[in-house]
Every structure is written in structure tokens, then in C-alpha cells.
């Protein structure tokens, strides 16, 4: 049973890049040893105490990153995240500039009417 906080929701664990890479290597090693793909992810996940779906996703992502499987690579995904963050920051800056322009425009109007 997953450990739970007082909210009743399962906790989520962040795995390091090294932990993920080690799990992928273990899955591949087991697959090479047995000559079978079936069951390797579940076995490795159980040995390490990791979630099966997490390990399965890491193996799939490694295959994408290596060009073996179609999909968005980790570096492309990171670049998209960076660009989205930059976009949010630019939108905030533009909003601040719009408000400043409105404020100073109104201030100039008041000064010219005097």
C-alpha cells in the first residue's frame, strides 16, 4: 500500500536522473539476459520498489531519446518547457508595460489640462 499523507492521497516521489537511468539499464540487462521483453519492467520495478508505470515510462522515453521509438525527446520537451516559461514571463512584462503606459498616459492628460 502506498504511503499516504493525512489528506489520503498517495505521495509522489521524485526520482533522480541517475535512478531512472539505472532502472532503464536494469530492464535492458534483464531483457538481454532472458531474451524476453515481457515482465522485465515489472520485475525491475518490484526489485527497486518503484512504480511499474514509472519504470515503463522511463524505458519508453529512453527509446524515444535514442531514436528507436517515435516521440518527443527529453531535450525537445525541456526546450518547450523553457519557451513556455519565457512566454509567461514576457506576457507578465507586457501587462506591466501596458498598465504603466495607461497610467502615465492618463497622468500626462491631467497635466496638460491644468
Q: Judging from the principal axes of the Cα atoms, what is the shape?
A: rod-shaped
Number of domains: 2
| Rg, Cα atoms, Å | 25 Å
Based on the coordinates given, report the CATH architecture of the largest domain: Orthogonal Bundle
CATH superfamily of the largest domain: Winged helix-like DNA-binding domain superfamily/Winged helix DNA-binding domain
Indicate the low-confidence ranges by residue numbers.
1-6
Strand count:
0
Mean pLDDT: 89
* Largest sheet, strands/sense/barrel: none
> What is the CATH third-level topology name of the largest domain?
Arc Repressor Mutant, subunit A
Tally of contiguous helical segments? 4
Distance between the termini: 74 Å
Instruction: Tell me roughly what share of residues is in helical segments.
Output: over 70%
Question: In CATH, what is the class of the largest domain?
Answer: Mainly Alpha
Q: Which strand-content bin applies to the residues?
A: under 5%
What structural class should be given to the helix and strand makeup? mainly alpha
Encode the helix/strand succession as letters: HHHH
Explain how this protein is built.
This protein has 114 residues and is mainly α. It folds into two domains: 11-71, Winged helix-like DNA-binding domain superfamily/Winged helix DNA-binding domain (Arc Repressor Mutant, subunit A); 74-114. Helices cover 71% and strands 0% of the residues. The protein is built from four helices and no strands. The model is unreliable at 1-6 (pLDDT under 50).
Amino acid at each position: 500500500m502506498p504511503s499516504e499523507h493525512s489528506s489520503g492521497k498517495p505521495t509522489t516521489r521524485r526520482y533522480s536522473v541517475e535512478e531512472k537511468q539505472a532502472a532503464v539499464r536494469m530492464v535492458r540487462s534483464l531483457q538481454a539476459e532472458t531474451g524476453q521483453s515481457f515482465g522485465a519492467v515489472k520485475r525491475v520495478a518490484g526489485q527497486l520498489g518503484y512504480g511499474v508505470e514509472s519504470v515503463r515510462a522511463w524505458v519508453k522515453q529512453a527509446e524515444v531519446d535514442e531514436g528507436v521509438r517515435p516521440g518527443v525527446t527529453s531535450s525537445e520537451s525541456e526546450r518547450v518547457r523553457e519557451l513556455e516559461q519565457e512566454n509567461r514571463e514576457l506576457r507578465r512584462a507586457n501587462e506591466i508595460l501596458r498598465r504603466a503606459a495607461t497610467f502615465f498616459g492618463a497622468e500626462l492628460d491631467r497635466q496638460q489640462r491644468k
